[in-house]
């Protein structure tokens, strides 16, 4: 069993949790006041990356870089969305530069998917 196959269940878990969180955050943003735009941005990142992680789990055996892309996208989404949610409800973020770090991780995850197009299996 390859690393991609072993990590696929984690990607399914994150996809489901991000999908759930994305819908919940969208509802909170729609009904919240003040800094609700923070929740809308967190929702957008969760809802954009949930199906991506799902697809990476399904295609893990076909894309050699799936494990790297999924880890970067998963951690990046957690950092980005988590920082915005904590900022909205606690008044300060997770740690300095958490959201930008998460954003860069997500971008590099997408690049890992692109690089996978040029890496042959086997």
UniProtKB/TrEMBL annotation:
Stored Pfam families: DUF423 (PF04241)
- Name the domain of life: Bacteria
Q: Which residues cross the membrane?
A: 36-59, 66-91, 97-119
* The keyword Transmembrane is assigned to this record: yes
Q: Which UniProt keywords apply?
A: Membrane, Signal, Transmembrane, Transmembrane helix
In the record, which residues are listed under signal peptide? 1-26
Q: Answer whether the UniProt record assigns the keyword Membrane to this protein.
A: yes
* Coiled-coil ranges per UniProt: none
Q: Which InterPro entries match?
A: DUF423 (IPR006696)
- The molecule here is called Oxidoreductase
């Amino acid at each position: 069993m390859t690393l991609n196959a072993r990590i696929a269940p984690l990607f399914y878990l994150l996809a489901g949790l991000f999908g759930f969180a994305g819908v919940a955050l969208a509802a909170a943003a729609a009904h919240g006041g003040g800094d609700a735009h923070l929740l809308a941005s967190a929702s957008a990142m969760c809802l954009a990356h949930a199906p991506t992680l799902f697809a990476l789990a399904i295609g893990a055996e076909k894309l050699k870089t799936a494990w790297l892309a999924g880890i970067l996208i998963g951690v990046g989404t957690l950092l980005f969305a988590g920082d915005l949610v904590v900022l909205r409800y606690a008044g300060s973020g997770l740690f300095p530069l958490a959201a930008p770090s998460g954003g860069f991780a997500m971008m590099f995850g997408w690049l890992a998917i692109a690089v996978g197009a040029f890496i042959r299996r086997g």
